[in-house]
Amino acid sequence: MKTIFSSLFSFYRNIKSKIAFYPSLFALSGLVFAFLMMYLEERGISGYLVENIPVLVVNNGDTALTILSACITGLISMMVFSFSMVMVLLNQASTNYSPRLLPGLISDHKHQIILGIYLSSILYCIFILFSIQPTGDQYQIPGFSVLVGILSTVICIYAFIYFIHTISQSIQITFILDKIYISAKRRMNVLLEREKDAPTVFPDSSGWYSYNNEFSGYFRDIDRENIIEFCKEKGTMIEILPVRGMFALEGIPMFRSKKELNRDEVSQFFTYFHFAREELVSNNYVLAFKQIAEVIAKAMSPGINDPGTALNAIDYLTELLRLRMLKSDHSYICEDQKIFACERAVHFEELLYTLLASIRTYCKHDIVVVQKLGAMFQYLQKQKFKEATYPATLKTEAERLLRDAQEVLDNKSDLDIISEMATRLKIALE
């Protein structure tokens, strides 16, 4: 039962980020509501309203046909325009910032819900249109259903106004960066909360039984509760080998078990892994660092040349690095002060080098951006840190940045600024 639930949950998480998920749900609800209204019309709801509140009922067949036809035409036009604007947003984000931002933008629920409202209203109006008998008397016309169709069109108009407001915000880089930051911060706070008072001793697993991956895709998430129950039931400990967010190829070692497992137990354990074909910040905070670093590199590339965007992105990167310094380089799955499994994480040294390698390449020639990065290192050196090696890592990366900038810049004033930064960061440049 747990295996089935885990598989269904994994399927739900995969399709939830698709752009058609919420529109499909709303379309289905509009279809069901249309049949419900048809049923109520057969029960005489319009006849009752004609006798008691006639102002709420459209009692002319030709008028009802004209109104619903106009509503359907207008709603289709609004939906096409809205969908086109979403495509413009995705194209601009991919061209000007980074293609890696697209999964997060596509999974924006607000735009999906608005498209779903359009679609459900269109389907509702179409099916109500089919039920109209313009040659019949007033009791055969679904007058109340037509009124509901008019109201749904009015709701769509207000949704369209809200859509214009949100799309104008979503296309701004500050909004995109803020969304990435909030998602990553939320995820990191969850991880930091789990690390509180957690044990940090895990045995050497080099001699344990290793099991290869049976799937391929981005390693998105794991089912922590089921893994704990599995380890309790089988009396074993588990080490998960790939880093979350990496593309796990079929056939590579996926996990090690202290106790040997049979084929059925291995298959059961693999159901606790969640794979996907795209990455989301809400599942892997490291992706937020990559996205912001790519925004900085793209902004400073010769084709874009936008230092302002790079400076804004560095501010968000600084805050995320401060939070990352509060986290350990190891992640444990434990319960009641007992460790059941260990999950590999991206080490701070590896993370910082990966980020700064691309940033150095595109930013070392701009003294303003280099100053901003120097201020970032200076700020991080004064913050709290979880591991004793973090300050040395910061100093090493700062030294690489300033040395690259020193080799590229030839203006004496710029070189003096580099020397001042090196002094503040206590770096000896040749």
TrEMBL record:
<feature type="transmembrane region" description="Helical">
    <location>
        <begin position="144"/>
        <end position="164"/>
    </location>
</feature>
<protein>
    <submittedName>
        <fullName>DUF2254 domain-containing protein</fullName>
    </submittedName>
</protein>
<dbReference type="Pfam" id="PF10011">
    <property type="entry name" value="DUF2254"/>
</dbReference>
<feature type="transmembrane region" description="Helical">
    <location>
        <begin position="20"/>
        <end position="40"/>
    </location>
</feature>
<feature type="transmembrane region" description="Helical">
    <location>
        <begin position="111"/>
        <end position="132"/>
    </location>
</feature>
<keyword id="KW-0472">Membrane</keyword>
<keyword id="KW-0812">Transmembrane</keyword>
<keyword id="KW-1133">Transmembrane helix</keyword>
<feature type="transmembrane region" description="Helical">
    <location>
        <begin position="64"/>
        <end position="90"/>
    </location>
</feature>
<dbReference type="InterPro" id="IPR018723">
    <property type="entry name" value="DUF2254_membrane"/>
</dbReference>
